[in-house]
Amino acid sequence: MNSEEGKAHWDLKYEQGLPSLTEPDPFFISAYISAYEKFVPESSPHKRAALDLAGGVGRHALWLAGRNWRVTVVDLSDVAIRKLGQAAQELDVKLDLLVGDASEYKFEPARFDLILLFYHFDRSLFPKIVSALKPGGLLICKMSLRWDSGESSTTASANPLQRNELPSLVPGLDALHHHERPVRDRGVVEFVGRK
Questions:
Q1: pLDDT in tens, 9-65
Q2: What does each C-alpha distance from 121 to 20, 65, 152, 160, 192 come to in angstroms?
């Protein structure tokens, strides 16, 4: 799927307003681990900066902004960013919103305390993510991966994430949490790493 096809695909999904795209992922705030609660220190004298890559309609960004985070959201979909802007205005929170492909985002070194990446896989992003984290900064991500060893792939990607591959993509991070499990016809990986 090229960039224009991807944009049209996601614009349609966000226009339909799927509930699963609006609530924070349970791994992030409410699951058995609650990555945020377990790994993100609450005490900080300054407003912390977060980046939500491929953030969609802001299910994580709005939650963070409501907790005094300065959040930048990048998403390919104009529809998602428009809806997120409206939601931020209704909740009276400020977000930096950018329409564009996550791979084209201009990462600045040591800018973010937290980077979120949920269900968007692009191997080229990981070195940029590591560089953009401040010392002690966290990457929290969850994504699909190829679970079986069969020839056919059930994911949309022609070159999906393989089992146990994610830690090798972020050698500059200490893995605080890495869990892989089967989910329906694929697998999922949950990962928290600290710079």
A1: 777 777 777 666 667 787 787 755 688 888 887 656 567 999 999 999 999 999 999
A2: 18, 24, 18, 8, 15
Query: Does residue 61 sit in helix, strand or coil?
Result: helix
* Phi, psi of 130, deg, nearest 5: -60, -45
CA distance 10 to 114: 24
Q: Sketch out the chain's domains with CATH numbers.
A: 45-194 (3.40.50.150)
pLDDT the model gives residue 41: 75
The token duo for 42 is 């609450």
Question: Which residue in 124, 126, 131, 77 sits closest to 107, CA to CA?
Answer: 131
**Helix residue ranges, H only, the chain:** 3-16, 26-29, 35-39, 61-65, 78-91, 125-132, 166-169
- Tracing tokens 């792939």 back to the chain, one arrives at 153
